[in-house]
């Protein structure tokens, strides 16, 4: 494995750890509820971290650009017209 691949994996691991902390903080800030449908998060309905303005659309990878959504709301946001990929 070359040094570029190792650095890439290390960066990805740091970002994943940061996003886990953001998700916990965001859930706490939102009172344990989905930002979209307001359902309470549970083991069966866990939170996901969503970028309000997607990174692919120029959104920043900052805590202020995140929200905690349940999986159904996250999927609906990613695919607003119900199109198949």
Q: In CATH, what is the class? A: Mainly Alpha
In what order do the strands lie side by side in the largest sheet?
1-2
The helix content, as a percent range, equals 40-55%
Number of domains: 1
CATH topology: DNA Binding (I), subunit A
**What order do the helices and strands follow?**
HEEH
How much beta, percentage-wise? Answer: 5-15%
> How much is the average pLDDT?
84
Tell me the distance between the termini.
33 Å
Describe the biggest sheet?
2 strands, antiparallel
Describe the model.
With 85 residues, this protein is of the alpha+beta class. It has one domain: DNA Binding (I), subunit A (Orthogonal Bundle), CATH 1.10.30. 41% of the residues lie in helices and 12% in strands. It has helices at residues 3-29, 71-78; strands at residues 47-51, 66-70. A two-stranded antiparallel sheet has the order 1-2. 11% of the residues are buried.
A few lines on this structure:
The protein has 2 helices and 2 strands, in the order H-E-E-H.
Would you spell out the secondary-structure blueprint of this structure?
Elements lengths: L2 H27 L17 E5 L14 E5 H8 L7
Antiparallel strand pairs: 1-2
Descriptive labels:
single chain; 85 residues; alpha+beta; DNA Binding (I), subunit A; two-stranded antiparallel ribbon; 2 strands
